[in-house]
Design goal:
Blueprint lengths: L2 H18 L2 E3 L5 E2 L5 E2 L1 E3 L8 H17 L6 E5 L4 H11 L3 E4 L12 E2 L7 E9 L3 H12 L3 E10 L3 H10 L2 E7 H11 L4 H12 L1 H7 L7
Helix pairs in contact: 1-2, 1-6, 2-3, 6-7, 7-8
Length: 223
Amino acid sequence: MSRQSLITASEKLAETALKIGAIRINTDNPFTWASGYRMPVYNDNRLLLGNADHRLLIAKTFQSLLKNKKIEADVVAGTATAGIPAATTLADLIKTPLIYVRNSPKKHGLQNQIEGVLHKGQHVIVIEDLVSTGGSVLKAVETIRLKGGTVQHCLCVFTYGFREAEDQFARTDCQLHALLTFEQLIDFGAKSGALTESQTSLLRPWFKDPFKWGERHGFPRKK
C-alpha cells in the first residue's frame, strides 16, 4: 500500500469515527476526561469494534504501516483492555503470537502482568487504541522490556499529538505511529464538511494549549 493509500485510509478512519460517534465534538458542553479536565473532544474507539469492516480497516492499515516502515514484529502486544481487539486482528493478519499487558499483575494464580508467551529478545510491537499523554501505554512498553522483550515501536489508532506524549516517547526511546492524528482529523473535517467552521476555529486553538482551554472558557477542571 502506497503512502497515498495510507493517507486515504486515515481519511476513511476519520470519516468513520465521526460518523459513528467514536470521535465526538462538543464545544458547548465539553466532556470530562479521566484527568478531570474539560475538553471539547472525546474519543471512544471501542465503538469501532461493532463492525467487522471497521476492525479490518484498522488492522490492514496497521499491517501496511509495518510494511512501509520495515518494522519487524515477532510478537504483537495489546494493552489491556482497549488495545487487545486491534492487536488480535493484526496478529491474525501477520501470523504472529499475541500477548497482552495488564495495568498491574493479577492478585491470584500465577500473578501474571503479561498474558501469553514472550521469549527474551523477541521484537514486540505494542498496540494501543488511544494515546493522549502516553503514560499508560509506555508502562506496558516498560513491562515488556523488563521481561526481556525488545520494544521500539508502538502503534495506535488515534493520537491527539500532545507535546507531553511526544516527549515521553522520546525519553523512553520508543517510536509512536498513529493511524489518525488530531490534526488529520481536523483537516479532514474541515475539507469534508463533517465539522463546521466554528468547530474547527475553536478546536485548532484548543490543540495548542488543551489543558488550559477549559479554564479560559469557563469549564474548570473537576477534581
